[in-house]
Amino acid sequence: MRGSIEKTRVIAHVDLDYFFAQCEERENSAYKGKPVVVCVYSARGGDSGAVSTANYIARDFNIKSGMPIIFAKRLLKDVEAVFLPVNHGLYNKISSEIMAILRGYTDRFEQESIDEASLDITEKVGHDFNRAREIALRIKNEILEKEKLTCSVGVAPNKLVAKIAAGFQKPDGLTVVPIEEVKSFLSLLPIGLLYGVGHKTERIMLELGIKNIGDLAQHRAEDLVRVFGRKLGTYFHKAANGIDESPVQERRGAIQISKITTLKKDTRNIDEIVEDLERLCDDIQRRILASNLMFHSLGIIVVAENMKTYSKSRTLDSYTNTFETLKGISYQLLTQFIEKSQLKIRRIGIRVSDLTSTSMQRTLRDFL
Ligand code: TTP
Ligand code: MG
User: Which pTM does this prediction carry?
Assistant: First the structure.
């Protein structure tokens, strides 16, 4: 045992509390004490759209991320609540400042979403979880003093358990799980808290009599592989036993999302293209919202009648995910292409890149 303690990694996971809503509260003290609901209003107008996040006062009224705004208004109809549109410029700015503070604590740093990061502080604390607790408190204090925001921190021997620990006592929490306590910490937690267990998997697990992570840990890896396949079955077995070897490492932000379509006929008349353009924007927006992403760059891809491919792109001032931006900028870029080129257009596409996540950025692939 002694050997494993000496070798254990020490990872801190930091997650800001009700991030977008807390940023709004910080900027406007009149919101304090009231339910605050931050919303992504859709292009259809009125109250169509979904809740991005809400402060904990609103959560007491059952307000949840992803809920239609109309439902949220109904739940809060008897109280004085604050409904606000997302202000990504503000959240990005605050996020960058916080990430800069966190980077000051270690060279081994991984930003996982706009408000979450993992820090490998093994060397800084000499494998010692008591010292790690002190560092975690310093981090919380520094963010509170400099940014006037609270966060929750989990400390554990790996990223997987540190993240679960960060969510264990929210808001303003600190949960330290030294290596010898990992299994007992996980054992009583509901299975749905394990990363990768969605509603569907949860249902299958409940049918197998698996209610909490401890139940899952008791299942043999071979049995889980039979039910969930090799990769997922092996992952579940390891994760339930608190094993995650993935290193804390800087992320490459190279991913992009694109979609291209062929026009009904070759044309250079923008009115004949605009419907396809809107459909592409709608499709891309749906995909980025479903993945909780925002983009910083947007481009069009044009395949002309001569089958040559042209592309044009623009970098924005801040991250966004709105339909208006997608449509407005792709329309401008397309107009510029048509003005410059004499060619008819055969295929048109849209690409968004330099993506960041509005929430949990890790995908199951990171663990498999
Ligand atoms: P989270 O960290 O998941 O949520 P949170 O910070 O609001 O609340 P807490 O951590 O205290 O539970 O997500 C970070 C931000 O990402 C959140 O403030 C708003 C945004 N977000 C969405 O826009 N849509 C979503 O479905 C989720 C989950 C988050
Ligand atoms: Mg958060």
Answer: 0.74
